Amino acid sequence: MEIILQTKKAAASGDLVAVTLWKSPNNGRFTPTGLAASWDRQRGDLQKTLQQEKFKGKRGETKLISVAGKGNRYLLIVGLGEKNRFESEVVRQVAALAVKAGHKVCAATISIEEFSIPQKRGASTVQLLAEGAILGNYSFDLYKSKENVVPKTVQRVEILTATKNPRLEKDILRGKMIAEATNFARDLINTPASDMTPRRMVEEAKKIGRLPHLSVKVLDREACKKLGMGGFLAVAKGSSEPPYLIHLIYRPSGQGGRPRGRIAIVGKGITFDSGGLSLKTAQGMETMKDDMGGAAAMLGLMRALSGLKPPVEVHGISAVTENMPSGSADKPGDVVRTLTGKTIEILNTDAEGRLTLADAIPYAIRQKPDLVVDIATLTGACVVALGELCAGIMGNDQKIIDRLIASGSEAGEKIWQLPLLEDYREDIKSNVADVKNIGGKGAGTITAGLFIEEFVRPKTPWVHLDIAGPSWTDKDHDLCPKGATGSMVRTLAYFVEKGI
Ligand code: BES
Ligand code: ZN
Ligand code: ZN
Fold it and tell me: Of 68, 139, 307, 412, which one has the fewest beta carbons inside 10 Å?
């Protein structure tokens, strides 16, 4: 799909023209502006139609009007909601709705005059529209027969602006790169676990490693054993698929000297989580191909960085493996020694993500980053606490936590902080090892966070994102169909672009 800028002087040439309206304060009476106003002048009945149809201008509300004669064939009106409750996400939504509404059209024009909203911070309107068009156009059809695939017809999206300039073109490109990276992460997660094996994850990482400014290292089981990654390898024991540690590196160049800081992103990469011998229920396993959502976010981000070219060095790391039950699986009661020397009593083999992170995070810290961010579909408790729409965040550096939450809000991803209460550290003390991999009755997300913190050694600024809720959606949304969401690719891209 092509996304181009069109100045107002040229005719809006799309077969579908999308215009937006704020929620009407006086019950259904609108004063159309911009393109909608000229449309109203020409045809004279826009207001009447909207009133008849009881269009309120609620956020995401749409009205598709088909037009006789030549030229544009459809007018799509999209509600923006209340002006004082504006969130930039609604701009993405407008583009997504325009692309979706035009099932039989090849080009959609979006008029952006109506978005004359004071933008305090964050991405420009054209970037948001580019993101929305590409995210909204996503579907996962790889495993469907042709007759079951809804064809995508929109080939061109025109954004109607007052003037064209190179900055706007750049913003479109940036939006495209971020959204395409998100869709790439969605593809990785949506692909069935029997195909998206650790080996396949390595292949995908190697492809990314060939992009400009990137390189990749892969450690096999032997290499991980030599380093002493007993936590990670214990999880891998039950699977017949070999585990790998993926290490991608983005190094900026041509910025005149040394990079401005170094960030390590560690993604949980369980390509399938059966629970191991602490087996999940059938229903509990249904979506567990998404347990590499953290690794997918990392891979999506690294791919985007090749084009975004921020002035920071970024290390993307993931310990990828399946978590399976078998005669060779790790057993409740086992004790393992990790990279830092710290030992773990494995009391529940389904709390496997933290075992892999216990090795992957110290490995990341050996790269001497200024900051480590780990992203993991870590706890069901986080889904209970915050639901499907919100990620949990914890860490040892409040400033960075605040900055990530802010990046999330600009990126359209909600993140909420949970407290790393020291008092709960008692709950992960073991009788036989240094720590155990489960906590007490409550606060499962927090005890998981405290557990990970034990492995942030030597101490480094660290932030943990629990995306067990938002990595997957059971509902269709304007910007994402049911299934994998590609959670945190956007947030991380916005975050990394700002540098540290
Ligand atoms: N991958 C799961 C967490 C999860 C649950 C992600 C639901 C997405 C949706 C994780 O490995 C897990 O099973 N955690 C256990 C931990 C418990 C045994 C301490 C959980 O949350 O039940
Ligand atoms: Zn598990
Ligand atoms: Zn898991």
Answer: 68
Alpha-carbon distance of 417 to 404, in angstroms, equals: 10
For ligand 2, the distance from its centroid to the CA atom of residue 427, given in whole angstroms, is 19
Confidence of residue 341 (pLDDT cuts 50, 70, 90): very high
Q: How many CA atoms within 13 Å lie on the side-chain side of 364?
A: 35
Q: What is the pTM of this model?
A: 0.96
Look at ligand 1, atom 5, and give the residue with the nearest C-alpha.
Answer: 380
Residue 389 CA from chain centroid, whole number: 12
Which pairing describes strands 343-346 and 435-436: parallel, antiparallel, or unpaired?
parallel
Count CB neighbours of 33 within 10 A: 17
3-state secondary structure of 188: helix
Active site residue 366: no
Q: 247 with 219: CB under 8 angstroms?
A: yes
At 178, the pLDDT band (50, 70, 90 cuts) reads very high
Residue of 201, 250, 244 lying closest to 225 (CA atoms): 244
pLDDT, tens digit, 9 for 90 and up, residues 114-151: 666 556 567 889 999 999 999 999 999 999 999 999 88
Q: In angstroms, rounded to a whole number, what is the distance separating the alpha carbons of residues 389 and 387? A: 6
Ligand 1: does its nearest atom lie under 6 Å from the Cβ of 382?
no
At 94, give phi and psi (nearest 5°). -60, -45
Q: What is the per-residue pLDDT across 443-453, written as a single tens digit (0 to 9) for each?
A: 999 999 999 99
CA dihedral for 28, 34, 35, 37, sign (positive or negative) = positive
- Contact 364/267 with Cβ under 8 angstroms? no
